UniProtKB/TrEMBL annotation:
Any single Pfam family the record assigns to this protein: ABC_tran
Keyword field contains Transport: yes
Any GO BP annotation: response to antibiotic
Domain ABC transporter residue range list: 9-248
Subcellular location: Cell membrane
Sample GO molecular function, one term: ATP hydrolysis activity
Listed InterPro entries: AAA+_ATPase, ABC_transporter-like_ATP-bd, ABC_transporter-like_CS, ABC_transporter_ATP-binding, P-loop_NTPase
Topology term for the membrane: Peripheral membrane protein
Organism taxonomic ancestry: Bacteria, Bacillati, Actinomycetota, Actinomycetes, Micrococcales
Protein keywords: Antibiotic resistance, ATP-binding, Nucleotide-binding, Transport
Protein name: ATP-binding cassette domain-containing protein
GO cellular component: plasma membrane
Amino acid sequence: MTTTTAPAVELRDLRKTFRGTGKGTRGRQGSREARTVTAVDGLDLTIEPGEVVAFLGPNGAGKTTTLDMILGLTSPTSGTARTYGEEPRRAVAAGRVSAVLQSGGLLPDLTVRETVRLVAALFPRHEDVDDVLARAGLTGLGGRRVSKCSGGEQQRLRFALALLPSPDLLVLDEPTSGMDVTARRDFWATMHADADAGRTVVFATHYLEEAEDFARRIVLVAGGRVVADGTTAELRAQATGRLVSAQIGAGELARVTDVLQRVAGVDDVDHTGTPAGGIRVLVRCTDSDTVARTLMTDLGACELEISRGSLDQTFLEITEQAEQAAATTETAR
Ligand SMILES: Nc1ncnc2c1ncn2[C@@H]1O[C@H](COP(=O)(O)OP(=O)(O)OP(=O)(O)O)[C@@H](O)[C@H]1O
């Protein structure tokens, strides 16, 4: 690994549009024009050397397209992407940046060890082949043909290849997809050791626990933009959603639900049974004071608890707010 003062990743007003049919919903339909899909829509982001950053967001949010531009695999329609102050392709060619992508890139007839040796020969300087195999948990699988490897093993092989040039920045697009729980845990243990040694890691994931456990910073992407950026605690604080729960009398559920659904700021009313045979009502809302007062004063509830929503709900809330704001802007245009 080399040292530098430039940010590991610097994205400025990054945009990428595609013509054709996309899986997302952000395209604008012209009367006779082909549909244009805006995958990345003015994204700004700076990642400093040594940071471990998770990209989270719903399907079609623009995560893969952004990572592809960080890797120089696709060019921005406008805006700039730099890695260590230079064009991404140069940083990749120099071995400073490497990636574990979701699919492709492996030759089925080679063995695992042959694959690693072949790719190692492409770099003037590279890590020891056996060491890389060991770090990717592939020591016992060196002689196995790639076509006979499971999806999770092939993903570990891609990881081994990405480690070969000893990159300063490792970009991982859903790196553990297809891995079982043990393989996933081993993978992240290796990554922890690398990150502790100063390597910058940027990864996209759908697993919230992975983002929370491993990343020190979470970048939430929706509609091709960054809609939240911070530690898990900071993101939780940004969400206004609260979960209010309280015990209610047997036979009161219909009336309580009816009253609560009329309270301003209530998103959802649910209930669960208690071990003692009672009922606990669960209210997702933005104004927990009013809901608590209604429950205790008007509805005779007891054992009230107020908490922030789960991390899942926090992300959902932030994403929904961003999507509503984008839809309002789009309508106003
Ligand atoms: N080559 C392409 N041609 C047309 N549209 C594309 C192309 N690549 C991506 N898109 C569209 O751009 C948008 C963003 O896609 P992208 O794959 O970057 O999202 P993502 O956040 O990685 O999604 P996922 O979580 O499902 O992997 C989607 O609407 C997708 O359909």
